[in-house]
Amino acid sequence: MSLPTFTATTTAEEVLQAFADQVKDKNVLITGTSLNGIGFETARAIAKYANLVIITGYNAERLKLSEEAIKKSVPSANIRPLILDLCSLASVRKAAAEVNAYPEPLHVLIHNAAHGGGPFQLTPDGFESQLSTAHIGPFLLTKLLAPKLLSSSSSSKYTPRVVTISSIGHAHGTGVDLDFLAHPTAEKYTNQSGYFQAKSACILFAAEVGRRSGGRVIGFSLHPGAIYTNLMQKPENQIFMKSIESLLLNRTFCSKGALKEDGTPNDTQFPFKNMAQGAATTVVAAFDPRIQDQPGSYLVDCVVANDQVAPHSSDPEMAKKLWDATEELLGEKFTF
Fold this sequence. Notes:
InterPro entries: NAD(P)-bd_dom_sf (IPR036291), SDR_fam (IPR002347). Pfam families: adh_short. One of its GO terms (molecular function) is oxidoreductase activity. This protein is an alpha/beta fold. The chain has a single domain (12-229, 273-325), classed as 3-Layer(aba) Sandwich (Rossmann fold), CATH 3.40.50. Helix content is 44%, strand content 14%. It is built from 14 helices and twelve strands. The strands form three sheets. The protein has an eight-stranded mixed β-sheet with strand order 3-2-1-4-5-6-11-12, sandwiched between helices.
């Protein structure tokens, strides 16, 4: 059976139709699934085909709205809501304990949640909030759920996957500042630097997962595209989105502003996608069998695009240092 070629306009539903057989018995956990976000659309699309979709959020009321909306769209969906605040290590541990008590194995862990470029803010554990949401919290969650992921491999001969949502914006910065990771200060922070570091960490972590696990769990990272989500619509994030320069695929810079001054998409400079298109690359990273032998890859527009990763985010030595530094911050080792 020949598989289709995907493009920037491919939708999550089209990807899932192609891989329905691969998805039908899988259990998937997706973080950050609020309405009007690509995490929600990813969960909604996968729920039509998967055995179980675990959706997460830190706000119980909003999480309930997402659950109801998915079930309304897909009446047959097996949805399980999970309270999870990635800015709280205690919340991460509690959520992981709950998942580990589930009878089902876990096949795919999708780290979709993001903070979105807001002002400097420390978490209750003393970490910078963007890096906590995009890297430190997901690192701990993956560590705690690793046995659950590995059990899916032993029971179904499937190689479990960890998917992180990065951004083409990772290439703007200079990579992760390990000193800032450990000792965040407002003086060393800008909305842009926090965002760029967080997205760089996503790529480095996804690549290192496969190396550390000896290929028993494989990771992929991706740029979903520019999508006008709930994250872009938050007032605290719009300041950043109005100022960020557009780094296009050919790495040339355009005029400033992913958003116009009125807060609407600047689609004359950015190639915006709709929600269904924005979720497609995540689904490819989670299920496409053609990328199985390319662990650690970075995807753009539903295809592997490792040539678009900045050197500071493709360096295996930097990935190792970030992993070791995160272990030190958490005070515990992460071994598969």
